[in-house]
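Form 7-S
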Amino acid sequence: MIHKNIFFPALVICLLVCLLMGFVLVLQTLCQKDLYFINKAFLGYDYYNFYQASICVENGLSPYAFPLHMVPPIPSILGTPLVPLGFLNARWIIVILVLLTTIFFYWIMVSYFAPKETQDKWAILACGFASLFLSYPFLFLLDRANVDSFAVFFMCLLLVYSHKSVLLSGMLLTLAVCFKVYPALLLLPLAIFKKNKILLWSGIFLLIFIAITPGYWVDFLNRISSRRAYFRTDENGSIACTFFWIGSFAESILFLIAGWKIDLALFFNYLSSLCYAGLLITILWIDVKSKEVKEEKDYVWRCLWYFPFMVAIPQLAHHYELVILFAMIPAICHLWVQDNTKTQQIFLMLICVGIALAQTQAVAMQKLTQSMIPHFIPGFGLFLVMIGCTFYKVSSFVVKLK
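Output:
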């Protein structure tokens, strides 16, 4: 009989993450090597690009005058008050904010989905934070001081407050999209569930931001268009990279078994686009067919199921973006104690396994094994989450039809 306590999924994820970290520590002991859990350059490596972009803004230039600035212009504009502090001081403020926004977005979702003032709530919090602090994507994000945690924080607040304040929700959606582009995918479920006022306010705020700095946005579009084909096999959790690795493994197996030399890696890379489109279209179709949700929490978890799809594209999606998966854990716990079939429980467990694998210490394992293969694991975990989310929705829809 499967355990039905609400915190069970969070506990499973925590135990798996601890086992993965334990494996790395045992491997490090056997290899007798010094170990860093990230590719160490300097603290705030990504924030340095934001900081330089803010200097450009302060000097009356486009933030994209700095060639490595890749995100929408709003973070560089908001970052100008930190310029006088100097980079070495300003980066600590951003690192602390990254830590706090990550903690708070998980706390927000636990407070929303878990029973109030119960031991179960604290168990979900404890398991989640234990997993978070052993997570490679989180350590990577903290080291780079990128703004992904801000975007996720805004999205979580948006989902929680979407029934209370459409004005605030519209502002939060705009901020999320203006920090990172991928929250724009949330427009699809919001449209399906007829959150038209939120979309309207978000559009108004976005037009205001664009009207204030139109040239910056043109520069931004030019910058991302020049980088859309950029690809690498390390530190990359995109579905394109995952399929590239699968193709490489298939090449090796065919060569060992039959002696065939066939270039499958690029074929699988292109196949990833079809797979992504198929999974996304499936959950969109399911939501269109069952768009009338009875409870607020039902609407929120359905929106959360789009989160893994946000960070699976483009061809380069850094592993630190996978921290977004932690926002899903409280929703999984909530669904675990509903009237699920055994098939639905299996898919929920598949999501849990995927989330745990996505936290794998890929860089540490690479340094210990002298192999790039560990970089495949976090992206493969994300792919399992996408499959689990899609087929959980399919199975839930089928159950409703019976």
